[in-house]
Amino acid sequence: MKLRPVSTVDALAAELRRRVLSGEIAPGTALPEQELSGRYGVARPTVREALAVLVHEGLLRREPNRSAHVPEVTLEDLADLMFVRRPLENLMAAKLAGSRVPAADRALSRMAALPPDAPWADVVAEHMALHEALVVAVGSPRLERLYGTLAAETRLGLVRLRTVYQDRERLVAEHLGLLRAIATGPAEVARRAMAAHLDHTWGAD
Known about the structure:
By secondary structure, this protein is mostly helical. It has 10 helices and 2 strands, in the order αβααβααααααα. The chain has helices at 8-21, 33-40, 44-57, 75-96, 102-113, 120-138, 141-149, 151-164, 168-184, 187-198, and strands at residues 30-31, 68-69. A two-stranded antiparallel sheet has the order 1-2.
């Protein structure tokens, strides 16, 4: 397997992504190009390109004549997000009932193997990978597209869970129970397990 060289733009985008998804850069924080250029020792065009990557991913927003900034996702935003996610993921769980999804199992194994001091961004990545693997396993391109439109806001929402799941083992155990319920079925059991999994607090506003 050939390794793809990582450009300075990719490296800076990865570092900023890690900081955003770990909560190190708080919602509402502006990211001035000049400040980032000085901090990371790279040219402003490089910063601009890296920020554009994260804007495209939905992790940052940019408005005319303003620095890019981390969007603020309120509890009201998250309630509306879950209003849309719940029926999609319940449908997915019922459809997959009685079958295992190896890609989801692997994501859970990676999550469980993370060291206690791993950045929360790594937990977010595996959390998303697990749920996305379940969606892909359904085999519906339309469901994938619908779920994809929620991905950025979901990832930003998951940043909040670092205070809810300070014990990583609890998060792993919940996902293990979910995958077991889906694998064993029947459909109603899988659907109820998913509904219970999505019924959690997002922490303080």
